[in-house]
Amino acid sequence: MLFFLILGLLLGALTVVFALQNITTISVVFLAWQLSGSLALILLLAVASGVLICLLISIPEVIKTHIEFSVLKKQNKALADENASYKRIVGDVAKVSQTKITETHTSVSSS
Fold first, then answer.
1. How many Å from the N-terminal Cα to the C-terminal Cα in the chain?
2. d(Cα 105, Cα 55) in Å, to the nearest integer?
3. Angle, vertex CA 75, rays to CA 69 and CA 81, nearest 5
4. Is residue 67 within 8 Å of 53, Cβ to Cβ?
5. Which residues face 27 on adjacent strands?
6. Is residue 20 predicted with pLDDT exceeding 80?
7. Rounded distance, CA 18 to CA 44, Å?
8. How far is it, in rounded angstroms, from Cα 96 to Cα 104?
9. Which of 13-22, 82-91, 99-108 comes out lowest in average pLDDT?
10. pTM, whole model, 2 decimals?
11. Which residues on adjacent β-strands are paired with residue 35?
12. Fewest CB atoms within 10 Å of the CB: 5, 31, 37, 38?
């Protein structure tokens, strides 16, 4: 946890240094839009928009994986319940078999 805090502080400090060193005003034109601002601001907006696009593209896969995981959890619970019931049945059969073996052994010993 401390590692991530230090890493975050380091990245934040590097971002501030980057922004202070790139204060030149530039103008960016895209289709009908025109944006003027510092070079650092424009680059950070470009990176942020790239991250946003990547997140939006990955959302369907994340949802699909979440649904598959939920289905597998339900199947796992059902199989665990079924396994527990089989173990109970096997335990009951073992008790009955042990009782019959004991009764047969006692009746044979008595004779």
1. 75
2. 72
3. 135
4. no
5. 36
6. yes
7. 10
8. 12
9. 99-108
10. 0.55
11. 28
12. 31
